[in-house]
Design brief:
The complex is a heterodimer of chains A (about 375) and B (about 325). Chain A is mainly alpha-helical. Chain A is built from 15 helices and no strands. Chain A is globular, with a radius of gyration of 22 Å. The mean pLDDT of chain A is about 90. Chain B has about 325 residues and is α/β, with parallel strands linked by helices. Chain B has a domain at about 125-250 and about 285-325: Rossmann fold (3-Layer(aba) Sandwich), CATH 3.40.50. Chain B is built from eleven helices and twelve strands. In chain B, helix 2 (about 40-55) packs parallel to helix 9, helix 3 (about 70-80) runs parallel beside helix 4 (about 90-100) and helix 5 crosses helix 6 (about 155-170). Residues about 1-20 of chain B have low confidence and may be disordered. Classes of the chains: A mainly alpha (about 375), B alpha/beta (about 325).
């Protein structure tokens, strides 16, 4: 390649982005009269400083792995799936319907069933924008983002009018049957004799997320479909010339993407909440975009970026507990800054860095 | 493996040991936000009063989203906070889940009954207080049309509405009460813009006194009422000062007392159901220098009379939540 070395591409640029984001966040913390260094320490201690903290961090990371992979898969076909939020919401509906419809005897049966429910519903929600893009040329960015709102409205309608527990005031479904409770880290570590706190919501879905990462890697780089997706993403005319059907690729990539986003619900709805509430996604669908960008759409990169964002989220919650002066709006600002710098402003650092490396190389060549 | 085990075990023990030295009480605010000038702010004032009087500290957090409830509860319980007070019915399923895991921690939930041995459930007789402000609204109204704006459409808020309508009709039997709810999700507690729009709509239908039970949304209701030159009625906290001369009164729901009592009792807080009503000043109407000019002696006399009769049982105000029905519209 004629740009910059690989290590700079996947390590240096995200790192500089992150440092910039934290610097600006530090200014924000400073502006409300708190010590940014102390805030940073609280965030670090709260997210990775203890086994319990890791439990929360990995719980958030699980969400981001799924939504990040969803964006990454679609991105390999040059489809920008902004609809992870809606697909995960609808995936939650699928998981909840499956979990509530049968009195599950054991989680080992409930887990694959809810996985299927969540993935199918998520994929179905992605299918409509995908079809509109493939057949009608409606831009996927516009349709997927609109489908987020439709999903949110649909969920509110169903939770308020249809699947709410009669007589209850809160818009949420009944608690899932005992047999549908997924093993938490407390249970799983208990099997091998390690004592662990009951509180962190991290559960077996984290292992599922790792499996999904490996699966996506295999799909993209080791299968014929993955090759077709990448070929289509690099050049549509070339792919068509090679006999690849654009409709098929768009549909396949978006269905897989939607399914992955839907899988997030296995973590939040089945694993943690054990019931469906309004907005179980909490913006993870959008964070997934930043995660995929930061991870350069590679499953391993997505995994690392997701853990980083998990730290950021858990650290943010912790900051709110420890520093009452930092309000919930302030946390949102800090999280948004990181997403802004690593996601949206990626090119702000990337292009100067590319030029720098290009200049260095030219000079070296000139000398030789 | 063994090394890992020891390490993880030690880390877990460290995490547990680092905190939990003192039993500070904790307060969790619902989505309306700490400074909603209403329900959550009343809770905050109670906590603050306790803090000022005892000089001790407490912990607090404002929730960001629906899904954080359980994490907040567990975080405080793990940290050794006791008791943990939460404002709002929406915590019910979260606390039902968390309370059994922390049998030595006391939880206090406001506005909801949760049947667990270590939970205190504080409920208010909002229908009684709403009845009183309904009487005042009817006496202040010249058009014979008054309005009610609720936050989220739930039985609890219909209880406010039902008490209010009963109060209005007890003075003017043929009065019209326009009722609107802001929404059906918890976001309806914090939507002042929509609150203001609903108020204007009610004014255009002839309402000249508007009562809100909408948390942070009510800020918009009272603002619009003041802008339109009609009277608003505040709720939960004393909101008379927000627009002096334009707020007829406020239906006080002493959430602050509930929080203060729980904090003062500390880890020994009594569990079970606690009802705060007119007889123990758990609800009432606010009269201060900001609304004195609006409240006539006649009005005050009617309120005092009704209050005495409700306490003595001569007047029974129907509680919507007893059968999910309201006898008057």
């Amino acid at each position: 390649m004629d740009r910059m070395p690989r290590w700079a591409d996947i390590v240096l640029v995200p790192l500089i982005n992150l440092v910039l984001a934290f610097f600006v966040s530090g200014l924000v913390v400073l502006s409300i009269g708190e010590n940014p260094v102390e805030a940073m320490q609280i965030m670090l201690r709260g997210s990775v400083g203890s086994a319990t903290a890791w439990g929360y961090t990995l719980f958030h990371a699980t969400n981001f792995i799924f939504t990040g992979l969803a964006v990454a898969v679609a991105f390999h076909a040059r489809m920008f799936n902004i609809g992870g939020e809606g697909q995960a919401l609808v995936g939650g509906l699928g998981a909840a319907l499956v979990a509530l419809s049968v009195p599950w005897p054991h989680w080992a049966l409930a887990l694959p069933a809810t996985i299927l429910g969540a993935a199918l519903f998520g994929a179905a929600w992605a299918a409509i924008p995908a079809w509109l893009q493939a057949r009608r040329g409606s831009h996927i960015v516009i349709t997927t983002i609109m489908f987020n709102f439709i999903a949110a409205a649909l969920l509110v309608y169903l939770l308020v009018n249809v699947i709410k527990v009669p007589g209850s005031m809160a818009p949420e479904t009944a608690r899932f049957p005992e047999g549908a409770h997924l093993p938490s880290a407390h249970d799983m570590l208990g099997w091998i004799g390690i004592p662990y706190s009951k509180s962190p919501p991290v559960n077996i879905s984290f292992l599922l997320a790792i499996l999904a990462s490996v699966g996506v890697w295999a799909l993209i780089w080791r299968t014929r479909l993955g090759f077709a997706i990448r070929a289509f993403g690099h050049s549509e005319p070339a792919a068509v010339y090679a006999g690849i059907s654009p409709t098929r690729i768009i549909m396949a990539a978006m269905l897989i993407s939607g399914g992955l986003a839907g899988l997030m619900a296995v973590n939040t709805v089945v694993g943690e909440g054990e019931r469906l509430v309004i907005d179980h996604v909490q913006g993870a669908g959008f964070v997934g975009i930043a995660v995929a960008l930061m991870g350069r759409s590679h499953p391993f990169g997505v995994f690392l970026a997701a853990v980083l964002f998990g730290m950021l989220y858990q650290g943010g919650v912790e900051l709110q507990f420890e520093m009452p002066a930092v309000s919930r709006e302030m946390i949102l600002v800090i999280q948004a800054l990181v997403i802004l710098f690593t996601g949206a402003l990626d090119n702000m650092v990337r292009i100067p860095m590319e030029n720098l490396f290009l200049g260095l190389r030219r000079r070296r060549k000139g000398k030789a | 493996m063994t090394f890992m085990k020891t390490c993880l075990g030690a880390m877990a023990a460290l995490a547990m040991g680092a905190v939990g030295a003192v039993a500070e009480p904790a307060l969790i605010f619902d989505l309306g936000g700490k400074f909603d000038k209403s329900f959550n702010e009343a809770a905050f004032n109670g906590a603050k009063r306790w803090g000022d009087e005892t000089g001790e500290s407490y912990r607090e957090i404002e929730l960001q989203s629906e899904a954080q409830r359980e994490q907040a509860l567990r975080r405080f319980a793990d940290g050794g906070s006791n008791p943990i007070v939460m404002t709002g019915f929406a915590f019910a399923s979260a606390v039902e889940n968390v309370a059994p895991d922390f049998p030595d921690t006391k939880f206090v939930i406001i506005d909801m009954v949760v049947d667990q041995p270590n939970v205190r459930s504080v409920v208010f007789a909002e229908h009684q207080g709403s009845y009183l402000v309904g009487k005042m609204a009817a006496m202040a109204s010249e058009s014979g049309t008054v309005g009610f704006i609720g936050g989220m459409d739930i039985p609890l808020i219909r209880k406010f509405a039902c008490g209010f309508v009963q109060g209005v009709k007890s003075v003017t039997p043929d009065a019209t009460v326009i009722q609107n709810m802001t929404g059906t999700t918890p976001a309806a507690w914090n939507d002042p813009v929509k609150g203001a729009e609903l108020t204007r709509a009610q004014v255009s239908q002839g309402a000249d006194v508007v009562y809100h039970a909408a948390g942070g949304t009510g800020v918009g209701v009272l603002q619009a009422a003041a802008d339109e030159g009609i009277l608003g009625i505040g709720v939960d906290s004393n909101q008379n000062y927000l627009h002096p001369g334009s707020v007829l009164t406020s239906m006080l729901k002493r959430v602050d007392v509930a929080v203060y009592n729980a904090f003062a009792a500390g880890p020994d807080v009594e569990t079970g159901i606690h009802v705060l009503d007119l007889s123990n000043d758990g609800v009432g109407v606010a009269v201060d220098e900001h609304n004195q000019a609006l409240v006539s002696d006649e009005m005050m006399a009617a309120v005092e009379d009704a209050k005495a009769k409700i306490i003595s049982g001569d007047v029974a105000v129907h509680d919507y939540m007893s059968n999910n029905e309201c006898p008057v519209k």
